[in-house]
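Agenda item 2: nicotinamide-adenine-dinucleotide complex prediction
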Amino acid sequence: MTRVLLTGAAGFIGGHIHTALQPEYDVVAIDALLPSAHGSGGQIEGIATVDVRDRAALAEVLTGVDVVCHQAAVVGAGVNAADAPAYASHNDFGTAVLLAAMADAGCSRLVLASSMVVYGEGRYRNRAGEQIAPGPRSRGDLDAGQFDNTDPNTGEILDWALVHEDSALQPRSTYAASKLAQENYALAWSLATGGSVTALRYHNVYGPHMPRNTPYSGVAAMFRSSLEAGRAPQVYEDGRQARDFVHVTDIARANALSVAAALPGFTALNVSSGQPITIGEVAAALSDACHGPAPEITGQYRPGDVRHIVASPELARERIGFDASVGPADGLREFATAPLRDAEGTGAPSV
Ligand SMILES: NC(=O)c1ccc[n+]([C@@H]2O[C@H](COP(=O)([O-])OP(=O)(O)OC[C@H]3O[C@@H](n4cnc5c(N)ncnc54)[C@H](O)[C@@H]3O)[C@@H](O)[C@H]2O)c1
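Presented output:
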């Protein structure tokens, strides 16, 4: 039986992957149970408390492991500069230690949780259909309520184009920088050792057991939490930001397919639903499903947020046979009443 080491097994996504891998695989589940994610709770049954930065502890759990499915990370928008050392420590350094320990143990296959944030701004085209790569949006424009990216030559508003895996990688936040660093270390490791890496670039993940409203949780959970408190979901910018919301059970299946596919070399794949939706539409769908107040478009913004990012699902279909089975209409309706992870761990991450 193929043995899989699953890191971040106590997390939102790791928990669903744990379920998806069983009973076909022999899963060794580990998690550091970071207080920022889990509060001060103790052990979780079936999950060994191991920090991926601890090479000696990894040596023990890597015995006989064929594939590592690496989900452990500090997550969030990465907009607070004070959190940079925590992202660098758990994500960059943690991945570097894990890769070294895998080389020590003779384990040559990695499935890595990457993210759409490695792309920064998605891809854009003007009315003539030309591809344009806009720079970061200026604070002046954002303060003035000009949220769209514009063509630097003509000033016309740019429409989004699908992001393929060979698009430019331009992280715009500390978190994004650390997710790209994980990919870069993994690529270098694969070249140096001949090992294989499938880096799954998840788009906006949502679903049961998503962490509740914290500055570090995803927007769908923030909307849910507002609605539970009887308040209108607060939508940044003008609500027309386009995204791809992919259900966590589909993310888990993409991981299982990657473990089974054993692609050679380094392969990065978008994992998305293939059904773009705007943030305003997500908020409206949740308000409707909860019979709650209609969303409020605030015109506020978060520095480092990108305007649009919509994935092409083609390569994942071609390479690992992945097609999302839950679309946003059904998934968000179900999510409106799904259980969420408790808000104990609302603190900032620490090193
Ligand atoms: N949730 C999303 O929308 C999303 C999108 C793209 C990518 N991702 C990636 O998916 C992965 C899982 O994210 P999630 O949403 O389940 O987050 P989560 O916070 O629920 O889970 C992450 C888990 O990693 C553990 N962890 C952190 N640092 C660790 C360390 N040094 N050693 C061992 N365990 C450690 C935490 O305790 C936590 O249980 C992450 O790599 C994240 O970057 C998530």
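Discussion summary: The chain has eleven helices and 16 strands.
Owner for follow-up: CH.
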